[in-house]
Amino acid sequence: MSKDEHDHRHCLELFEKLSEYLDNELDEVACKDIEKHIKECVPCFVCLQTLKRTVDLCKQAENRMVPEDFSKKLKEVLQNMPKTPPAG
After folding, report:
1. pLDDT bracket for residue 2 (50, 70, 90)
2. DSSP H helical ranges for the chain
3. pTM of the model
4. CB 37 within 8 A of CB 14
5. Distance of alpha carbon 51 from the chain centroid
6. What is the C-alpha separation between 25 and 47, in angstroms, rounded?
7. Cβ atoms of 34 and 1 closer than 8 Å
8. Cα separation of 20 and 48, whole Å?
9. Contact at 8 Å (CB) between 49 and 41?
10. Residue 68 and residue 74: Cα distance in Å, rounded?
11. Which residues in 34-64 are b (16+ Cβ under 10 Å) and which e?
């Protein structure tokens, strides 16, 4: 398959499964499909590597308390948000 014939729908389907892939939550068939695709698709390979790095950075991050004032303002904003998106 040439670059012009690349089916990006498969990339989008794969993207939806990357987190589960990294967490070892997929069956063997799905994992093999992802691994085959990653070997052939540079953008998806880069996406997977970026996601892996992001997960690693999050694991290394310190847990810090959110300032009380910020927490209070965030709760107020969330409580005042519309429950349903505007029609449009």
Report:
1. very low
2. 8-15, 18-22, 28-40, 42-60, 68-80
3. 0.61
4. yes
5. 7
6. 18
7. no
8. 12
9. no
10. 10
11. beebbeebeebeebbeeeeeeeeeeeeeeee
Alpha carbon distance 11, 30 (integer Å): 13
Tokens of 67: 């300032």
Structure tokens at 25: 């939550």
Tokens of 36: 């085959």
Neighbours of 14 (CB within 10 A): 19
Residue type, position 28, single letter? E
Is the pLDDT at 29 greater than 90, yes or no?
yes
Mean pLDDT of 24-41: 94
Please name the amino acid found at residue 6.
H
Give residue limits of the domains in the chain.
Answer: 3-80
**Count of CB atoms within 10 A of residue 17's CB?**
15
What is the rounded distance in angstroms from the CA atom of residue 15 to the CA atom of residue 44? 8
